[in-house]
Design brief:
Elements: H1 3-24, H2 30-56, H3 66-112, E1 117-119, E2 125-127
Antiparallel strand pairs: 1-2
């Protein structure tokens, strides 16, 4: 009954562990985007499978035999551990990206000169405008 949900949880756990390992080893690239896409798809499949089970057989988890409960518990524990590790490393990656953008902004300001002034439409001076930052030739 819950075998499909358990299989999806196991697949999602493997994807999260692989993504976490690649982020830790700094193996970037397009594979990370594919892993994130697969992770999103599997979360959707898991949500729909659990909703289907709840709709068709309310109380399905309590109706499992002991072996089924053990498998479900093991899958949930593994998924929880993988999710925690994955969330921590993704949060750190986001923090690093924010720090990097701050450093790029500070360097752009430094290169533009601290005392840069620009005339406004009313003829007044506006000091220290931030230089635009270009990433991949786009502002």
């Amino acid at each position: 009954m819950a075998n499909e949900a358990i299989d999806v949880m196991a697949s999602l756990t493997l994807i999260m562990n692989e993504e976490t390992d690649r982020l830790r080893s700094r193996e970037g690239g397009r594979d990370l985007a594919e892993l994130a896409s697969a992770k999103i798809r599997l979360v959707g499949v898991l949500e729909s499978e659990l909703a289907r089970l709840d709709r068709e057989k309310p109380g399905w988890a309590r109706a499992l035999d002991q072996d089924g409960r053990d498998q479900l518990a093991a899958a949930l524990i593994a998924l929880g551990e993988a999710s925690t590790a994955n969330a921590a490393i993704l949060e750190r990656q986001i923090d690093l990206s924010i720090e990097m953008m701050g450093a790029v902004t500070a360097e752009a300001k430094r290169l533009a000169g601290r005392r840069a002034s620009t005339y406004g439409a009313a003829g007044n001076l506006a000091p220290d405008f931030t230089a635009p930052i270009s990433v991949n030739s786009e502002f």
